[in-house]
Amino acid sequence: MLHDVTLQRGSTTRKDDAAMKSRVFSTLRALQHENPLGLPRSGAPPQIPRMQRGLPQKRSIKDVNKVVAVSSAKGGVGKSTIAVNLALSFARRGLRAGILDTDIFGPSIPTLLNLSGEPRLSPNNQLLPLSNYGIKSMSMGYLVGEDSPIVWRGLMVMKALQQLLHEVDWGGLDVLVLDLPPGTGDVQLTITQQVVVDGAVVVSTPQDIALKDAIKGVHMFRKTAVPLLGVVENMAAFHCPHCHVETPIFASTSASASAQSSSDDVATAHAHSLHARFEALGVPLLGRIPLHPRICADADRGKPSVVAEPAESPNVVAFEAVARGVAERIGLKW
User: Fold this and answer.
1) Is the sign of the CA dihedral 195, 67, 81, 245 positive or negative?
2) The whole model's pTM is what?
3) For residues 299 and 4, what is the distance between their CA atoms, to the nearest angstrom?
4) How far apart are CA 119 and CA 122, in angstroms?
5) What is the per-residue DSSP string for 92-117?
6) Which class for 146: exposed (0-12), middle (13-18), buried (19 or more C-beta within 10 A)?
7) In Å, what is the CA distance from 69 to each residue of 30, 198, 229, 252?
8) HEC states along 4-45?
């Protein structure tokens, strides 16, 4: 598919005669390894910083005041949902907020923000973010078809990541949320070693299998000297709308065993167990997001809970409590 695109340069408007210069990404032509996003070039492309006597020098993201990374070493724990609601919570407080989807292979932000279409280019050939609900966003998902896979080796992924990090015209942000892919691999290492990140938020669900990977994520940020802001427990418990009893659907095995050997119920034992495990690592608990079908439904229809539900709803209150904790830790006015 090829869109009819116009370029704005000063007071002149013209259609690009080749219809390719303004097209950021196209499956109709071969990709260059030095420029996987296909941005127009007038000079040499930016290079991945080389190792010189240790770690590469960290760079700030242009026109961005604070950068917060949202991570989970385990996939499927709701990290992207947390990240987008975090950015939206910042925006509700009057902050200029944005979100960058750094998951090259499985981008979720376009769906969560109900956005599609290719970004336009600025006069200096940088990507212009797409906006909805008061926040700016950029994602690999805007550059390819919804059902088109990215089948790239590591070098292409790293080049594309460099372009997403440093060739987007954010136009001035108070805070940029980075939605990291699952794991502790190349993308995470590149970001933590080459970008000035003001703090990281680790997301986990209650199960032991997720907690073990979340702890690996904590150690990754420690090794790369990125400040740990705290952990968010997602899908923490189901609140019955009828009897108002809290049930931890995904309670960890250790919490269940603790409840059986004490007078605590499973919910209490579970909360104490998770908090204790991260407290032992010196990582505070930023908040607990309930397991609620509406959060999932809001995400699927492209209108996240922070903008879809009333401000006093328990889901919104939980998300904003996390955002407030993050803001206080990185010096943003709340």
Assistant:
1) positive
2) 0.82
3) 30
4) 10
5) HTT--EEEEE--SSS--HHHHTT--S
6) exposed
7) 32, 8, 10, 26
8) CCEEEECCEEEECCCCCCCCCCCCCCCCECCECCCCCCCCCC
CA–CA–CA angle 234, 201, 255 (5° rounding): 40
* Residue 51 DSSP one-character state: P
Q: Are residues 302 and 109 in contact, defined by beta-carbon separation less than 8 angstroms?
A: no
Give the tens place of pLDDT for each residue, 46-73. 555 554 556 678 999 999 999 999 999 8
pLDDT digits (tens, 9 = 90+) for 67-102: 999 999 888 899 999 999 999 999 999 999 999 999
Q: DSSP assignment, residue 141?
A: G
Strand partners, 165: none
Fill in the DSSP letter of residue 159.
Answer: H
Enumerate residues 6+ apart whose C-beta is below 8 A from 185.
none
Domains assigned to the chain: 64-330 (3.40.50.300)
CB atoms within 10 A of CB 312: 7
Query: Any idea of the CA torsion for 210, 164, 169, 34, to the nearest 10 degrees?
Result: 170
Assigned token pair, 260: 């059986």
Q: What angle do CA 288, 325, 178 make, to 5 degrees?
A: 85
Q: What are phi and psi of 189, to 5 degrees?
A: -65, -40
Banded pLDDT at 270 (limits 50, 70, 90): low
Give SS3 for 65. Answer: strand
Q: How many helices (H) and strands (E) are present in the chain, helices listed first?
A: 10, 12
More confident site: 80 or 24 = 80
Pair of tokens at residue 94 = 């009057």
